[in-house]
């Protein structure tokens, strides 16, 4: 299910700040998380927007093919680029301010599935806030690649739409000449793009430079499901009204069309697109009409940008993406135009009704016609499963010939699909399934044109891999991937692929015998050239490695090994599925983490490595994506032990040299040469911590050629004590590093108080509550002092005994 995130900014201004209220919900359901925060005062932010807006408008207005005309002189592109960079930096600092930490923490704790679509709604009536490019919030939108921001329209539940034979699209093309100039804009390109992508199976009506009366009558006669306008437009200075140049003699406002458009909404108007300039005033006028989705350009737009955006938007929208993701995809695909028009990708702005889900091209066709998509449509999505036993990612084309048991019977030869046409789904490299018609992955945006991994049209799980002959093994060392939907060992059903590497494939699966509990399946690829000679060696090494993983899994910070087995001469490991997010979500490029964050990260990972190394195992691939912050308790879990090797005489006596594995940037020299040490893991962890402190990827760090010392200290605000520890962890010569995780932990413990006292601002890692040692000692000292003062006060001010001194025994008087 997709998620809805609403940031409600009720009141405030840039001089005093804005209170912010967050609500997170599953689309169509009640909210399940909320938080409060505040955007601090930022008067310079509005000024920086103006610093970009004015020269940008001046640049665009002087083009011969602009859809608006603004008075002003030409401006240099470098000046606009500088202004856009300054605005982006200030906006991110504003959104990441300490007053917003509660909102950020709530977002990251509750949005755990990157594959889900996330619709972010900014709910505000402040026109200056509506102009800001919210999509530049890198910490959020660069983590959640299937998220997009929209501005809020008034909430209203859509009425049931009247069924039609075909959805109606009304495209209006206004005046083609500018005011006082002969700058013609090429609206024919817009028309051809609409015909190319939307005219099939729709009732498409274009109107070119119509008179208001004709346009009004057309809307009343045949209310459209999609209203499109291209031409010259503008907003009045106060931004409350939008003007569109309908023809050479008529410039109208949205108010002139409101009665007709209001009736069109009741009849099923779903989407309005104004591919014209300065459309915020237009959107504000349309707001009270309750059109579910509106797309406008927030500033003047060059002709070429308007056309390229429309092309990319329609490609994604027709390819079954939602309006939100289609806008994001279009923005990303026109990013190359930023060279000529800095900030131009900020222009597309979506207004949406939060009560209505973001519309997709497929849903648009279904809603407009009032009928479900037919089975003959090869790009139709299958309905969502009611339980986990149904496979939601299986192909949508269901053959009509099914046996009584529910399995699909083989069609006769005359009905079988021709070669290369028997597929309805295609996978990207991340394992996401897509329609065969899609050009880009609907989950991660990867181009699909060059990919050839497709899923067969069948509801029957593909057959399990057959045993390989010696000849086949000799021809290829690669293992065949497990088919999605396959059931291994009679109980582990493959759901989707999680990754692949030199040691095999990794899949997410469900354990049918354990109430469909999720687990991870690793299909191992062991190196042996001749199956008949070395199969027994491969089997022994596999069982040895499984035994090691079983021992490691006894620690709750390492995934537990649930089972291991052979099937059809393939080797499989079944491990615990860790529900959480890896550290690549926290440690991102360009963002410097606090020193306290790094200290606690260092301590937690060292404790895991201490346990691992004492069992004679080197991990050899320490990196952010292999450390997961577990959702249930925020503890770090070290995963991906597919590359571990037991340190034993038996291993060293092998004739084969150790395989050099790992991730570039984190791999030390000795490991790259195939001779890993325990200190190799310590090196990788030190590099990870330096990356967190500097925000620089390890491959970008420079090294002194004479000393082989990594240069990073100038790029981070770090105490001398922690810098000394990290420098020793990443020494080029492994003999000069710490030789054990225990040794690093002891040194870190000795220096912890000095290191933490060095910091003035100590933000906690996302999802964790950090306790700082130096603050604990201060609290303890204050508590002891309070007890001492209370005791003294009691002694001084306590009431005297009511028994006279002379009546007490002598011994009691002495005691008193």
From TrEMBL:
Residue ranges of domain Protein kinase in the record: 492-756
Sequence positions that bind ATP: 522
ATP-binding among keywords: yes
Record-linked SMART domains: S_TKc
Residues annotated as transmembrane: 776-798
Protein known as: non-specific serine/threonine protein kinase
Span list, region Disordered: 396-425
Database matches in Pfam families: CHAT, Pkinase
Biased composition (Pro residues): 410-420
Signal peptide (residue range): none
Positions with biased composition (Polar residues): 396-408
The reaction(s) this protein catalyses: L-seryl-[protein] + ATP = O-phospho-L-seryl-[protein] + ADP + H(+); L-threonyl-[protein] + ATP = O-phospho-L-threonyl-[protein] + ADP + H(+)
EC number annotated for this UniProt entry: 2.7.11.1
């Amino acid at each position: 299910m997709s998620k809805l995130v609403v940031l409600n900014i009720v009141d405030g201004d840039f001089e005093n700040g804005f209170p912010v209220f967050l609500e997170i919900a599953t689309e169509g359901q009640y909210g399940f998380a909320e938080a409060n925060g505040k955007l601090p005062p930022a008067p310079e932010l509005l000024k920086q927007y103006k610093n970009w807006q004015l020269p940008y408008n001046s640049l665009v207005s002087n083009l011969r093919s602009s859809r608006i005309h603004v008075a002003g002189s030409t401006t240099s592109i470098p000046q606009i680029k500088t202004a856009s960079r300054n605005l982006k930096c200030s906006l991110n600092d504003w959104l990441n301010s300490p007053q917003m930490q509660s909102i950020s923490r709530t977002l990251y704790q509750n949005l755990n599935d990157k594959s889900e679509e996330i619709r972010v709604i900014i709910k505000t009536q402040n026109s200056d806030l509506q102009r800001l490019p919210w999509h530049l919030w890198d910490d959020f939108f660069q983590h959640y690649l299937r998220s997009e921001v929209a501005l809020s329209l008034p909430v209203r539940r859509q009425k049931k739409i009247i069924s039609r034979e075909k959805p109606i699209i009304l495209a209006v093309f206004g005046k083609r000449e500018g005011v006082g100039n002969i700058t013609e804009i090429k609206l024919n390109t817009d028309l051809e793009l609409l015909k190319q992508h939307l005219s099939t199976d729709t009732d498409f009506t274009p109107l070119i430079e119509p008179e208001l009366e004709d346009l009004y009558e057309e809307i009343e006669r045949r209310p459209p499901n999609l209203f499109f306008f291209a031409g010259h437009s503008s907003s009045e200075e106060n931004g409350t009204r939008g003007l569109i140049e309908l023809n050479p003699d008529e410039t109208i406002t949205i108010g002139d069309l409101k009665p007709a458009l209001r009736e069109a909404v009741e009849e099923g108007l779903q989407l309005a697109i104004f591919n014209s300039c300065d459309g915020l005033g237009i959107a504000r006028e349309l707001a009270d009409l309750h059109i579910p989705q509106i797309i406008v350009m927030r500033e003047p737009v060059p002709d070429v940008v308007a056309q390229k955006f429309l092309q990319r938007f329609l490609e994604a929208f027709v390819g079954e993406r939602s309006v939100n993701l289609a806008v994001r995809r279009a923005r990303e695909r026109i990013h190359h135009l930023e060279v000529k028009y800095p900030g131009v990708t900020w222009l597309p702005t979506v207004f949406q009704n939060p009560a209505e889900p973001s519309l997709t091209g497929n849903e648009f066709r279904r809603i407009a016609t009032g009928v479900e998509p037919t089975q003959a449509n090869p790009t139709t999505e299958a309905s969502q499963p009611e339980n986990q036993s149904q496979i939601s990612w299986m192909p949508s084309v269901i053959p009509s010939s099914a046996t009584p048991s529910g399995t699909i019977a083989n069609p006769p030869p005359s009905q079988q699909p021709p070669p290369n046409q028997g597929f309805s789904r295609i996978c990207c490299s991340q394992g996401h399934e897509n329609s065969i018609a899609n050009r880009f992955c609907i989950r991660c945006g990867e181009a699909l044109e060059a990919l050839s991994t497709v899923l067969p049209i069948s509801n029957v799980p593909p057959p399990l891999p057959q045993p390989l002959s010696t000849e086949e093994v000799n021809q290829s060392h690669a293992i065949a991937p497990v088919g999605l939907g396959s059931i291994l060992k009679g109980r582990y059903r493959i759901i989707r692929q999680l990754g692949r590497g030199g040691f095999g494939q990794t899949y997410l699966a469900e354990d049918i015998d354990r109430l469909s509990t999720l687990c991870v399946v690793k299909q191992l690829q062991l190196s042996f050239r001749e199956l008949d000679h070395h199969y027994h060696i491969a089997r022994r090494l596999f069982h040895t490695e499984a035994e090691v993983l079983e021992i490691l899994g006894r620690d709750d910070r390492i995934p537990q090994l649930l089972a291991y087995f052979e099937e059809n001469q393939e080797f499989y490991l079944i491990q615990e599925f860790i529900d959480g997010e890896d550290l690549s979500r926290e440690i991102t490029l360009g963002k410097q983490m606090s020193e306290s964050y790094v200290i606690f990260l260092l301590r937690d990972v060292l404790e895991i490595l201490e346990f691992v190394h004492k069992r004679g195992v080197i991990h050899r691939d320490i990196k952010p994506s292999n450390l997961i912050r577990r959702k249930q308790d925020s503890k770090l879990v070290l995963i991906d032990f597919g590359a571990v090797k037991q340190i034993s005489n038996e291993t060293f006596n092998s004739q084969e040299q150790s395989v050099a594995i790992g991730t570039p940037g984190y791999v030390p020299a000795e490991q790259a040469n195939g001779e890993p040490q325990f200190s190799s893991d310590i090196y990788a962890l030190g590099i990870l911590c330096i990356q967190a402190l500097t925000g620089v990827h390890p491959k970008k760090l420079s090294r002194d050629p004479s000393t082989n010392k990594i240069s990073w200290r100038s790029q981070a605000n770090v105490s001398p004590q922690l810098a000394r520890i990290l420098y020793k962890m990443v020494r080029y010569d492994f003999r000069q590093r710490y030789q054990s995780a225990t040794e690093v932990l002891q040194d870190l413990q000795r220096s912890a108080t000095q290191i933490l006292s060095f910091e003035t601002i100590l933000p906690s890692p996302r999802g964790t509550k950090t306790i700082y040692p130096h603050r604990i000692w201060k609290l303890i000292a204050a508590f002891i002092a309070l007890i001492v003062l209370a005791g003294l006060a009691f002694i001084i001010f306590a009431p005297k005994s009511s028994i006279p001194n002379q009546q007490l025994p002598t011994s009691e008087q002495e005691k008193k």
